[in-house]
Design a protein that fits this description.
Number of helices: 1
Strand order of the largest sheet: 1-2-3-4-5-6-7-8-10-9
Number of strands: 10
Distance between the termini: 56 Å
Shape: globular
Largest sheet: 10 strands, mixed
CATH class: Alpha Beta
Helix content: under 10%
Number of domains: 1
Keywords: Leucine-rich repeat, Repeat
Organism: Oreochromis niloticus
Protein name: Leucine rich repeat containing 18b
InterPro entries: Leu-rich_rpt (IPR001611), Leu-rich_rpt_typical-subtyp (IPR003591), LRR_dom_sf (IPR032675), LRR_domain-containing (IPR050216), LRR_R13L4/SHOC2-like (IPR055414)
Structural class: mainly beta
CATH superfamily: Ribonuclease Inhibitor
CATH topology: Leucine-rich repeat, LRR (right-handed beta-alpha superhelix)
CATH architecture: Alpha-Beta Horseshoe
């Protein structure tokens, strides 16, 4: 027996009712826990949002119209069914926080390295074995979560990141090896870079 999950229909009015104001006066669209399997098309009319939360749904594919959300600083897509990210993610040049944990990602587009203001990237609970080398270009990145993936070693591209403060790599099948680095790195279940 195959169970099919029926996506809930969302109108623009329903989406507008999910807009809230953050404490610092930014518009935040909270569509978490809505039972949707796709990002509703009506959402593209709300492109002026600074923060978008689509977490805890059943979204399988993220639409290219995300490129219109150029003011977005926070995008939360955790706990969905995403298998890939669109190249259009590279247009989110103001993005500071990207949460993609608990999805089905097996790879990432190299265009992710174009998000030059990104400070926090959470990729935990996916099926990643490697990161694109372009991640090494994320000069503002301070925190990266890679726990519960399939990494067997620390991705070398992370060693290029001068502002990186923490790397979470809990519950990966890490093979112990010497890591050449200029910074002291505490090797345990979690990696913390110390200046």
């Amino acid at each position: 027996m195959i169970l099919e999950t029926k996506s809930k229909k969302m109108t623009l009015k329903m989406a507008q009712n999910c807009v809230e104001l953050t404490l610092d006066g930014k518009h935040r669209l909270d569509l978490s826990f809505k039972g949707v399997t796709a990002v509703p098309k009506c959402v593209q009319k709300l492109f002026h949002m600074a923060e978008v939360d689509l977490s805890r749904n059943m979204i399988r594919k993220f639409p290219d119209f995300i490129a219109q959300f150029i003011k977005m600083t926070v995008l939360d897509l955790h706990s969905n069914c995403l298998e890939e990210l669109p190249v259009a993610i590279s247009y989110l040049q103001n993005l500071k926080v990207l949460n993609l944990c608990n999805n089905r990602l097996t790879s990432l587009p190299s265009e992710l390295g174009l998000l030059n203001k990104l400070q926090t990237l959470n990729l935990g609970l996916n099926q990643l074995e490697a990161l694109p080398a372009s991640i090494g270009a994320l000069e503002e990145l301070r925190h990266i979560g890679l726990s519960d993936n399939r990494f067997t070693r620390l991705p070398g591209c992370l060693l290029k990141l001068k502002k990186l403060e923490s790397i979470k790599m809990d519950r990966n099948p890490i093979i112990a090896e010497k890591i050449p680095t200029e910074k002291p790195v505490s090797i345990s279940e979690s990696f913390y870079l110390v200046k």
